[in-house]
Design goal:
This protein is of the alpha/beta class. The chain is built from nine helices and seven strands.
Length: 262
């Protein structure tokens, strides 16, 4: 039986991924700051933002006397704010969860993998795009995570391990609620962009109205784990307006967004 480690397992996407993989006969080891109670899965509570948390998870997994065939990086948080108004604690936290946690896991757990293994990163449709105003911090972390995946892909190829990225648009998970709350907080507290924020709210609401269930993400992850030759990138539910905007030169994108938001 193949074994897979899933981070962020208690979140909307992580839970759907764990459930589908277990249903397909994989042995699932789940990591998150909250316990996951699903049949046919083993769960360990830890904070992967820290080396100590990741090391504790490693000790737990080693005690299972198993190896790893795959790692799925589903851990992630969302935040939204003006870059000049975001405090250090929130700035640091989103990098720790979205980027550093994955790096801790890769460093500590890939020695348990052998040739033929798979690593899958969950990023965002925003990762390859020119960063949007106010969602910049989230896009920057996801762009950084894709850069990690790209570099790791070449390194792991030397060991016979493949690296794939699943790049979803809006997904119906608690992260959508986080997005709404972050936007509400921003609209209330911003000192410089009050009129702009209200207009930006309408844009965000339009983008998020086209969400897909987390099971769609789980399906893409399973494809990446089971395909004979997995793709480098799996796109899902990308917003056509964002794609159209991104087709413009960067300077023209900035001009369009300024005209919309000002």
């Amino acid at each position: 039986m193949k074994t897979v480690l899933v981070t962020g397992a208690s979140g909307g996407m992580g839970r759907a991924i764990c459930r589908l993989l277990a249903e397909r006969g994989l042995r699932v080891y789940a990591l998150d700051v909250k316990p996951l109670e699903l049949p046919e899965t083993a769960s360990f509570v830890c904070d992967l933002r820290t080396e100590a948390g990741a090391s504790a998870a490693l000790e737990w997994l080693q005690a299972q006397e198993t190896h790893l065939d795959a790692i799925v990086h589903a851990a992630g948080v969302y935040d939204l704010d003006a870059l000049v108004e975001m405090d250090d604690e929130r700035f640091r936290r989103i990098f720790e969860v979205n980027v550093f946690a994955a790096c801790h896991v890769n460093r500590l757990f890939t020695p348990m993998m052998t040739a033929g293994g798979r690593i899958v990163f969950i990023t965002s449709e925003l990762a390859p795009l020119h960063p949007l105003p106010f969602t910049g911090i989230y896009a920057v972390t996801k762009k950084a995570l894709e850069a990690v995946a790209a570099s790791l892909r070449t390194e792991m190829a030397l060991r016979g391990i493949t690296v794939s990225v699943v790049r979803p648009g809006a997904v119906t998970t608690p992260l959508l609620g986080d997005s709404t709350r972050a936007l509400d907080r921003f609209c209330r507290k911003t000192r410089y962009y009050r009129v702009n924020a209200e207009r930006f709210r309408r844009i965000v609401d339009s983008v998020e109205s086209r969400s897909v269930p987390p099971e769609k993400v789980a399906d893409r992850v399973y494809r990446a784990l089971s395909a004979r030759k997995p793709r480098r990138i799996y796109n899902l539910n990308r917003n056509p307006l964002l794609l159209l905007l991104n087709a413009l030169p960067a300077g023209l994108q900035e001009w369009v967004l300024t005209r919309i938001l000002k």
